[in-house]
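Box 3.1 A note on notation
Throughout this textbook, protein chains are presented in two layers. The first layer is the amino acid sequence; the second is a token string describing backbone geometry. Keep the layers aligned when reading.
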Amino acid sequence: MRRSLIFLIVLGISGCTPAPSPPTGLSVVGRDAQWKKHLEQGKQADERGKHDEARQQFLAGVKDAEGFDPADQRLVTSLTYLGQHYYQQGNLTEAEPVLQRALGVAEQVLGPSKPEVAVILNNLAALYHKEEKFDQAEPLYRRSLGIYEQFPDRRDSNLEGTLKNLADLCVDQKKLDQAEALYKRGLALAESASGADDVNVAPWLTSLAEVYRKQGKHAEAEASYKRALTIEEKVLGADDPEVATTLEHYARLLRDTKRPAEAEPMEARVRSIRAKQPTNGPMK
């Protein structure tokens, strides 16, 4: 399953206390603008697929940030962007020490229980999760989640991202009862925030359905698949790739329960939807 990385926003640190300017020829305001420019150009380069250029821009952003106070929040943001860049390029060896350093600086600058620290904890946990270092990922996910829970009045989609990651980890660890509870919690949050028929509810339903299927709770799994499919078809359209994925998983459940006659038309529809896509990926 795909792990959710959570991004810090550059403009979110614009309130940092300026540090004294070293003799570089630029004022503090000028250096701050240069730093922001490097990060923005790095993001844009990644979006264009110019990943070498992006890496250089993010490295320049780290160097800029190091020119401020050693405990400046700009360094946290720069390291986070660089670490996320390495992660997304599959360079986990480079990403790990960068994210570890970001966490250390964030704890020093902000304290150990701030939402910004929770972001980095999630991202480092996602890296360990991808490396299948489950014992290292789990406490970081749980600590990240615990920080978000300290701010119950703050509506934060990052909480749902970490919750989903932790639930996925429990599935990978075959802790299905824990995964079920976490997916149910995420479903309730999504319903409360967006409404019971919102498309953001569907991924929680399909994840919960898969856990039910693995637990042998076939009736509960089928009800969740049906509800997710209804939402996706209504909001995304009958030929959306997400509809195909849900149909495929639903058909697998039908085959598990010895109902091939019902599974076959779903599988045919999956093939039809994917044949219409610009690039036909392998069956998931």
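Residues 28-47 form the longest helix (20 residues). Residues 174-278 form a domain with the Serine Threonine Protein Phosphatase 5, Tetratricopeptide repeat fold (CATH 1.25.40.10).
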